[in-house]
């Protein structure tokens, strides 16, 4: 006797409503989870967890569901709401501001910034951060990270400027293959119409931002906001004077970093030195 489908709770959140609507349209179309899995290229078990709101839908799923069920954008609209719920409360304001940014400037001292991480690099980082996490919990975090990156594909996309300490390139996550793929992505983004990546080599020595990561956003209304992050916490800085100080420190660091072209060459040299 087949197991009874788990009861849904669409009234709890947009994420739960997404799952409930997905099951409702699927059953209305008389499509099994197995058949839907073949259409959307996501495993049956993952689809089942999405229906019961145990897993967040990946960014690629909503448009495919709308096409499969002829729902005229319903799932994409629900996804926009559900994606805001995946981040902890203390990061909600951060995600709201990042979503409004027309210019994102970020300095990272140790780890490739989340907004440009590959899935495998993000997965490896999350596992190292919490080795007791289940695979589903890790995948949930990876999905959240990929949702952030969708901001770079907006129309128009924000301009992105990254300054990476040399340590970011040298500190491998997930092994040589994962690191090589991540560095290759950085090379691709080193100098495009909307992205710039610069490397701050060790030989530069100390600087004002050595204590942590810094992100600066220029918002759609011209306002500027800064965000400082440590291992598990982040602090939003919205005071005009303080943000100006952080902007000055960032600008000085950018002046001392390698040019985008030289940075791409430097990153390639690190890739070549990785074991095969």
TrEMBL record:
<protein>
    <submittedName>
        <fullName>Helix-turn-helix domain-containing protein</fullName>
    </submittedName>
</protein>
<dbReference type="InterPro" id="IPR010982">
    <property type="entry name" value="Lambda_DNA-bd_dom_sf"/>
</dbReference>
<dbReference type="Pfam" id="PF13560">
    <property type="entry name" value="HTH_31"/>
</dbReference>
<feature type="domain" description="HTH cro/C1-type">
    <location>
        <begin position="22"/>
        <end position="57"/>
    </location>
</feature>
<dbReference type="InterPro" id="IPR043917">
    <property type="entry name" value="DUF5753"/>
</dbReference>
<dbReference type="Pfam" id="PF19054">
    <property type="entry name" value="DUF5753"/>
</dbReference>
<dbReference type="InterPro" id="IPR001387">
    <property type="entry name" value="Cro/C1-type_HTH"/>
</dbReference>
<dbReference type="GO" id="GO:0003677">
    <property type="term" value="F:DNA binding"/>
</dbReference>
